[in-house]
Amino acid sequence: MRDLRLKIDLHVHTRYSHDSTTTLDEIVAYAKKRGLDGVAITDHDVVEGALKLVQKVKELVVIPGVEVTTSRGHVLALNITRPVPTELSPFETIQIIHEAGGIAVAAHPTVFYKGLRGHVDSNFDAVEVVNASAFPFFLSTYLSRKLAVRLDLPQTAGSDAHYASELGFAYTIVDAAPEVDEIVHAIKKGATVPCGKAIPWKLRLKRGYFGIKKKL
Ligand SMILES: [Zn+2]
Ligand SMILES: [Zn+2]
Fold first, then answer.
1. Residue 11: which residues within 8 A CB-CB, separation 6 or more?
2. Going from the N-terminus, what domains does the chain have, and what CATH number goes with each?
């Protein structure tokens, strides 16, 4: 039987995000280096980088997406090719994502300073359980997993990389053929295993070292 398990980092930023420096070439190079089969490009409120990478790359599955700023926290929209209005409620945001044919994932829902916290419900299609940039990592992973189980929602993972070297520290194993539609369908039905670890501190500190202002 064909092995359809794909290793995909479902939360990646590019330099088209206001707070990331990663070029599209670096995404491709690091995805290969980390043994990823694919990435979801989820820049803050813009889709330009995602669309450019979809055009540019054939040897990697690229899921176009966006990380939407809602009135209550961040929502990952996957399989989306146009921006989603910002600062709406999570409920309204999810509706718009669904109308556009995408799926809505609760991004780092239990991180204290930027999480959706009490605003995640079963309208979401999945919960991001492992986020390699989350702090404190183990507590937020534990709480997010608990939330996903309570709501009976599929579980995903992503690095939330804002710098190329952070790519792939967390990833989702998806049981699907390497096509965007198949992957999105598999996530929706819960054919996923969230995996990964926290981005090491020596890499995280570089964010400050380069003097890049990072708005979370
Ligand atoms: Zn976020
Ligand atoms: Zn992010």
1. 40, 42, 67, 76, 107, 128, 131, 157, 158, 159, 160, 161, 170
2. 5-209 (3.20.20.140)
